Amino acid sequence: MTKKILELCGDFTEDYETMVPFQALSMLGYQVDAVCPDKKAGDTVPTAVHDFLGEQTYTELRGHNFALTADFDAVNVDDYAGLFITGGRAPEYIRLNPRVIEIVQQFFAAGKPVAAICHGPQVLAAAGVLKGYTATAYPAVGPDVTLAGGTYKEVPADQAVVDRNLVTAPAWPGDTAIVREFVKLLGAKIEI
Question: Can you name the CATH fold of 4-185?
Answer without folding.
Answer: Rossmann fold (3.40.50)
